[in-house]
Amino acid sequence: MTNYISTAIAGLSLAIGVAAALPAAAQDLPSNLRIVIGSTSTGGDTYQNSSIIADALAAELGINIKVDAVGPAEGFKALGRDSSGSTMMIFHDHAYLGELYGVRGFDNIFEDYRVGPTVSINPGNAYAVPKNSPYQSMDDIFQAAADGTRVRVAIQPGGVSEIGFSAMKNAASVLNPGSEANIVAMNTGSQSDKDQLLFDGQADVINASIQSNEQYTQLPADDQKAMRFVWLTAREATIQGANPEGMGAMTRDDMLKYVSPTTSVTLDGSVDFTFDKEFFFIYNKDMDPALVEAIDTGLAAVFDKGDVQNTLKASFFIPNFLPSAEAQAHLSEKRATYEKVISAIGSE
Q: Is residue 312 within 8 Å of 120, Cβ to Cβ?
């Protein structure tokens, strides 16, 4: 009996010691945290970003974090069911763009959920043309539309892929009112579907990404799959944050040729449109504010150490930590800007 009591006391002392050693932020969090993501792929950028952040945060806070690739519909359902803080979500701008484009299953995240901190940016959102295309630049595309030429743009409707297309139509309208009718969408699915339309000559321009399409820019012009970029939607400052070697054979300096102000897609005639694909936390609306603060504090500590920045940049992601209050204001402003573009042009 004496040995049993001694063992129990020792175990209790150890548990108290471990709890005391944990960062204060972790005291409010569940020991097992599930992060659902707005993607069903375990090989895409959402899962990559979420895994990098989850691993770093789990190590900092001394808790277990599991990333679950369930997709947007199931992710929002899981989030809506759990106000305890045991389930959180990481997603990107599609979380609010889907609602703006009227995609079924998407609600206003600023009203129905709580927007948390941003963590990173995928700077690779792009538009590309065949390497032998007569369009050497976005200016050429807008001029063609103004001249009455129909420019076919392959996109996946309802989110990140479409917002750049909406910006193109908006810019055409600003530059030459009425010409936006000649910027037409070819709605399709995955990146490979968009690529195939370009290979088959069924599209003149496609929404692309540096990660997926840079390989095709290295092909000779007479190759059916050869293409070149004409626009990167990211801000210049975002691309400046990438490693100098860039991605594949495309250096950071190469990328800067395709962003504003060198490549201009106007928003209103005086300011250029830009779009960064940002990853951020989303919480149940009724989650305890102490848990929001705990995640903010934990992430601040992770980013202060600096290791996660190197990991993100090595995978061609741009570190971008903003605590919850700043992130909410920033993302709300983005949503308002894009709502005006979408309302003016509409989805196709």
A: yes
pTM of the model: 0.90
Does 159 score more than 80 pLDDT?
A: yes
Structure tokens at 126: 């792009």
pLDDT for residue 276 is more than 80? yes
Q: What is the DSSP string of 180-228?
A: GGGEEEEE--SHHHHHHHHHTTS-SEEEEEHHHHHHHHTS-TTSTT-EE
Is the CB of residue 158 less than 8 Å from the CB of residue 347? Answer: yes
Place of tokens 């369009």: 135
pLDDT 10s digits, 80-98 = 999 999 999 999 999 999 9
Which range marks the domain in which residue 260 is found?
A: 125-275
Are residue 129 and residue 271 in the same domain, yes or no? yes
Average pLDDT over every residue of 324-340: 97
Of 275, 293, 326, which residue sits at a domain end? 275
Question: Are 317 and 46 in contact, with CB atoms under 8 Å apart?
Answer: no
328 & 308 share domain: yes
Q: Are residues 76 and 112 in the same domain?
A: yes
Q: Are residues 112 and 148 in the same domain?
A: no
**Cα angle for residues 244, 250, 254 (degrees, 5° grid):** 75
